[in-house]
């Protein structure tokens, strides 16, 4: 059965390693017959949540920027994959800001059930992703019908293109095919 898949690439760097990982996950999902959309945050305007909680009543953010539009895409996606570079052993600030701005989804009848994390790090230890996994799991725990279904960790990638020969690309593709 075909699923609606939303991939949010949160790197501030266009064409970076985590974006490449996102595209490979998308290729796998498309090969398996799923409908896939990739949203890259590097060219989006996303302000910080102001904590007004109006969205808990209206299910829309009072800040009308790209995050509001992306949150509405998240609402109807059955699968969401977040791709992020790891900075200081954590997800990118862009990813954290987007998670915060998805607060209108909390009271909504959201479609997503399966969440994936695609992470890249300059660090050579897979534990470099643990902070990002913990942070994303905290977000997931707020959505009772949702769970973390898979993580791809690509280590030892710094410069654009470093991921080209890494096994994580194949792992992302295979994970995409298995949705």
UniProtKB/TrEMBL annotation:
InterPro entries, alphabetized: Flavoprotein-like_sf (IPR029039), FMN_Rdtase-like_dom (IPR005025), ISF_SsuE-like (IPR051796)
Protein's UniProt name: NAD(P)H-dependent FMN-containing oxidoreductase YwqN
Domain NADPH-dependent FMN reductase-like: 4-110
Alphabetic keyword roster: Flavoprotein, FMN, Oxidoreductase
UniProt-listed Enzyme Commission number(s): 1.-.-.-
Top EC class, one word: oxidoreductase
Keyword Flavoprotein attributed: yes
UniProt KW S-adenosyl-L-methionine keyword: no
